[in-house]
Give the backbone structure.
Amino acid sequence: MLERKDLLGLIDATAEEITAILDLAQQYKDRIKQGEKKMSYLEGKTVTVLFYENSTRTRTSFEQAAKYLGATTINIVAGNSSVAKGETLVDTGKTLDAQKNDFIIMRHPMGGAPYLLAKTVRAGVLNAGDGINEHPTQALLDMLTMREHFGTLKGLKVAILGDIKHSRVAKSNLFALKTMGAEVYMYAPQTLIPTGLDKLGAKICSSREEALDNADVVMGLRIQLERQQAGNFPSLGEYAANYGVDEKLLALAKPNAIVLHPGPVNRGVELTSGVIDHEQSRIEDQVLSGVAVRMAVLTLLNEYREYQKNGGNKQ
Ligand code: CP
């Protein structure tokens, strides 16, 4: 059980909470691998997926997770809903609450939007990415993939390279990996590193070599073309040549290192195709970790809802 109504970020997640999510997610991942896709932990519950931004992985894996758990799922594409007629987020939330939704999974371009929704609705709110703030379930699925490979997160050197400034994935990973005892090294052009990350515990590197040397995990982040202001770097070609990771650079990491990327990947920009398709790449495995982690979060939040409904008595 997670003693929270919502999962909005990992900035305040404890090691116990993260461990509980990863332990249950590992069980779900093993069960899915064995072909089990019909469970009943969320039978009778309604999960609404409300996305104001594009998505492939997060949207489909949340929907899959809810369905595997036996919930009824509803999909709202903001462009096709009354949002396009000017309805506010708060009024959309009130409508979904009146329909007795149990969970709302929201992606929104504005940082903090899920916090506003969570304050407004009785439903549990799960942040599926808010602006450049956080993407908690992405970091949890990254950590599940790491923990499955290494058996632990403690002491790992995780090198994150790419568009860190615009990355909610980088922030959620930094918060949670530090909580779990890993070390986070970051490298990007100065223009793509926000100030203050070192104060949050990241080691800001001055070269790719420094970031990758003896790393356990090499994580590429997408250059977010839709969020770039002109002048962050000269061109994608120059970015790839000076900041991207190829197989020669990957060889600086530990022999049993793994490669991660949250997707979607700009092939040949942040990582070469040789790295994306390398035997050390776990990018495809991350996708299954995503379904399992989202199942675990929904289950643990639902247990708390049931606990509260029963007046705080465990069933
Ligand atoms: N990693 C991630 O959030 O991917 P999508 O944008 O496809 O959901």
Notes: The chain has a mean pLDDT of 94. DSSP finds eleven helices and nine strands in the chain.
